[in-house]
Each structure stands twice: as C-alpha cells, then as structure tokens.
Design goal:
The complex is a heterotrimer. By secondary structure, chain A is mainly beta. Chain A contains no helices and 8 strands. Chain A has one domain: Immunoglobulins (Immunoglobulin-like). In chain A, a hairpin with a 4-residue loop joins β7 and β8. The N and C termini of chain A lie far apart (35 Å). The longest helix of chain B is centred in the N-terminal third of the chain and has 17 residues. In chain B, α3 packs across α7, α8 crosses α11 and α10 crosses α11. In chain B, strands 6-5-7 form a 3-stranded mixed β-sheet. In chain B, strands 1-2 form a two-stranded antiparallel ribbon. Chain B has a two-stranded antiparallel ribbon with strand order 3-4. In chain C, strands 1, 3, 5, 6, 8 and 9 form a 6-stranded mixed β-sheet that branches. In chain C, strands 2-4-7 form a 3-stranded antiparallel β-sheet, with no helix packed on it. Chain C is globular, with a radius of gyration of 16 Å. The chains are: A mainly beta, B mainly alpha, C mainly beta. At the A-B interface, β1 of A face α3 of B.
C-alpha cells in the first residue's frame, strides 16, 4: 500500500516555470546494514524516478542507497500546454508505482 | 549503610526540590528546538513524510474489517468532523477496562469490540497510520487530556514514574526534561519532552513512531529496563505527559530529528 | 583470519565514480551551488538543493546533475537528468550521510563542459539513539 504525495499547481500561465514536489513512501533499505545475528539486510531501494508530461520525459533521476527513506524529490519544468504529468518510481524487488497530476494552462 | 541511605535520600530530595512543572508560558514544543531545515519538513504537507502515513490511515479508515465487516467510517462517518479534537483528550479512561487507554489502545478496543477483528500489533504500520490519521484531525487543537476525575490516580502514577530515578544512570525523566531542557546532551537539544506531535516522523527512525516507542528508547537510554508496549506504566507516563503539555497545540504528524 | 569489511567509499572509489560520469573531461569549479546544512542533526535525512547558473534555453542548458559523497559505503548519491524545458536548473532531495564528510555536485552543461561545487557537512550523533534493527 505505498502512498505518494505530489504537489503540482492546478493552474499556470503558458511559459511559467513551475516547481514540482514529490514524496514516495519507501524504506530505501541500503543493503549495508546487518541484523543482530550478522546477516546482511538485502538492498531494497527505488533506483529510478521519471516524470513525463503528455508522454514526453521532462525529468529523470537515478537513485542510490544514499537517498533517504521516503524519497523526496523536487524539480522545475516549463508549462507549455494543459495536460497530465505522470510520475513513475521503480526499483528493487519489482517495485513499480505511478501517480498522476493534471495542470490547466490559462 | 545508614549513611549511604541518608545520602541517597538527600540526593533524591534535592532532585525533587529542583523539579518544578514548566509553566504554560514557558512550555516549548520540540519543534522550537529544531533546525530551520527540519522545521521546513514539518511545515509543508508535501514535504512531511508523516503525511504518507496519514494518507494510509485515511484508506484504512474507510476499509471494512473483521467479522462485523465494518469500517471505522461506518460508525464514525467523516473523520474530519467526528475525530476533530479527539486525540487532544487521550489517553482517556476506558470504563469497560477500568483503566486509561491511549489512542492506539482505543483503536484496538474498537477493532476488537466493534469490528470483531484482531487488534493491530503495537508499532505496526497500520496502527501507526490510523493513529496518525485520527490525531491529524486535531492538528492545532490544544491538548486537554486528564479532565476525567477517574483518571486522577493514573495521572498521579504517571507523575511518580516521571519523577522516579531508575536505571544504571540513575536518572528520572524530570532530571533532563524539567531541570535541563535548555541545555544540550552531546550535539542534541534535550528538549522538554512535550508529546505534541505523536505519532511523529523521526529522522533517526526514518519512519513514523509512537510516543510509546519514544518513551522506551528514552528508558533504554538511561540504561533501565523498558516497559512493554501496551503496558499500563507506558500509558500512565503518556497520560502524565499529556496533562503536563496541557494547552499546547497538537502537531501530528510532527517531524523530529 | 582478519576480515576487512569495506566500510567507507575510498577516495579512489569516489574518483572512479566521478570519472564514470565525466570521462576525461576537466571539471571546473563554479556555476554550481550546493545548499546543504553545514551541521546536521541526523545523517539519515539531510536536505540538499543543487542549483546551476544557466539561461536554460534551447541552445544553452543543463543536461544533468550528479551528486557524490566521500565516506558513505558507496560514492554515488543520485543523478538527475534535466533539459532545456526544465526552465530552472535546480533539484532538491534528502540524502543519507554516514559520517561528517564532503559532498560534491557536478553539472553537465549542453556544451558538455562540467562544473562542480563541494560542501563540508558535519554530522552530529544524537545522544540517545535506539539500537540499530
């Protein structure tokens, strides 16, 4: 039951540069920790984050174990037209989650 | 032997004389001890990882459970209305049990009695999420726990536990959180130990956690044996802490270092 | 028998990680701003913002930002791929720092030049922490 929080302005003017904030629930287990009995806790992280706008990639990130639990990523994009942002997180153990947000150009 | 006992008594008395309850005007949330960066995480919902649990809790609120096949929402409807201010009054006296229960305990009473479902494990993801969702409905409401006269003996017991030296370091809660909250221990602010934002997201934990988890960590820190999750001692400590924080606004889900 | 567990990324590992990104190119100091608290309360969650001075036009923009550390078990932190339509070359995230150390951000511009900024972070250890796991 992973949750995501996305902050995208609902409306903007054509040509505006907007900030997008994303927060995804994930433990980001580094693979460098050990249990009390000495066993390595296997790595379980998100390795990739992508944001597309109307199908075209506008931002992408490769994540490593040094990204904190519940990855928080913010970035900017220029508003060109009304449409839909699609967010995708993928990673270890087949992790794959998506979220969407729409924006209207006034 | 008698001299040693005498010294111990004197030390205890000196400690008791120093320990005075912090007046309302001087009560400070852990928030005020934090760096600007950590405050910023709590200030904006999209930046606050605790909000992810609140979202999970909202889902659970509406999900049917148990042999009664009822969701929380089937009895309590819209939590934004029915749960507003509720967490500010917990722990509360539970008549059927003859003792106080904290918010987590109350949720499990509901699960057992009304949903006829198995109680959530302490510190489980689901229990934390539902507690966070319910408590978030009281964000900004002043803490008002301990009004019920039935609670008086339990508040008193919690207070006694707060004042009682224990563990290999022979420290009581009061020695740090009443007497030295304006100082630092290693690099960290000691703080007043005001329970205004639970369950909260602790950067150390990299997860949401309950007040009971925090209390257990503190007790382990003074090298004493921590009370079990769900024990009456922990609920009494929670209850005393909430009466001690009376009037302070709820911050759930808070962020702390 | 003595077993040595590689606890930290070595300077050589850091150099290799950087070379994997920049190749043989020269990395110059400048254009990049790395905002990270000099003293952090907990190394598990350290807020960080990287911004790059660039007009962000179709002809002149930031292609990517790469962030590295000196002393975690692994030298990479994250790679962020932008483009001219980003409008503003700035990304923020939260990172883990196992110890007090240097953090380096390197930006690749559209003309394939590389620019960097480095910051020192002191990680204080909390006095009362729970046992790990």
């Amino acid at each position: 039951m992973p949750s995501a929080l996305i902050n995208v302005p609902k409306k903007a003017k054509r040509g505006d540069v907007i900030e997008i904030k994303t927060l995804m629930s994930h433990i980001m287990e580094t693979g460098y920790r050990h249990t009390a009995s000495g066993d390595v806790v296997p790595r379980d992280i998100i390795t990739s984050f992508t944001c597309r706008f109307n199908g075209a990639e506008v931002f992408r990130a490769d994540l490593y174990p040094a990204i904190a639990a519940n990855p928080f990523i913010t970035f900017f994009t220029t508003v060109t037209e009304s449409g839909k942002f699609e967010f995708e997180w993928s990673g270890d153990k087949g992790f794959s989650e998506t979220a969407q947000a729409s924006i209207t150009v006034e | 032997m008698r001299i040693a006992a005498c010294i111990a008594l004197l030390t205890a008395m000196a400690g008791a004389a120093l320990a005075t309850e912090i007046p309302l005007s001087e009560r400070r949330s852990g928030y005020s001890f934090m760096s600007a960066d950590t405050r910023a995480m709590q200030d904006e919902d999209t930046a606050n990882p605790g909000m992810l649990s609140v979202l999970d809790g909202e889902t659970l609120w509406k999900r049917k459970a148990g042999t009664a096949d009822k969701a929380c929402a089937d009895c309590h409807n819209d939590a934004r209305v029915s749960m507003k201010g509720v967490a500010a009054h917990y722990p509360a006296f539970e008549k059927a049990l003859g003792k106080p229960v904290d918010l987590e305990g109350r949720i499990n009473v509901c699960r057992t009695n009304h949903q006829q479902a198995s109680p959530f494990a302490y510190e489980s993801r689901d229990l934390l999420a539902l507690s966070a969702y319910v408590a978030q409905q009281s964000r900004g409401e002043p803490i008002a726990a301990g009004d019920d006269p039935e609670l008086a003996p339990f508040v008193e017991k919690g207070h006694a536990l707060f004042m009682q030296r224990q563990g290999q370091l022979n420290l009581a809660c009061t020695n740090c959180h009443d007497d030295n909250w304006d100082k630092k221990l290693a690099g960290s602010a000691i703080t007043q130990g005001q329970p205004t934002g639970y369950p909260l997201y602790r950067l150390e934990w990299q997860a949401l956690g309950s007040l009971q988890r925090r209390l257990r960590a503190c007790i382990t820190g003074i090298r004493a044996q921590a009370y079990d999750y769900g024990s009456l001692e922990l609920v009494e400590l929670e209850l005393y802490l909430m009466t001690r924080a009376r009037g302070m606004p709820i911050e759930t889900p808070a962020v702390r270092p | 028998m003595v077993i040595v567990r590689p606890a930290d990324a070595t300077p050589a590992m850091l150099q290799t990680a950087i070379r994997n990104v920049v190749g043989e190119a020269n990395v110059r100091t400048g254009k990049v701003k790395l905002d990270i608290p000099p003293l952090v309360e907990n190394g598990n969650t350290v807020p960080m913002t990287v911004s790059v001075t660039s007009p962000m036009t179709a002809d002149e923009y930031v292609k990517s930002i790469h962030v590295f550390n000196e002393k975690n078990p692994q030298p990479n932190i994250g790679n962020f791929y932008l483009g001219p339509r980003a409008g503003r070359a700035q990304v923020s995230t939260r990172i883990r720092l196992a110890d007090s150390q240097k953090v380096t951000a390197i930006a690749r511009l559209s003309d394939d030049t590389f620019w960097s900024a480095t910051a020192d972070v002191v990680v204080t250890l909390a006095a009362c922490t729970e046992e790990a796991i």
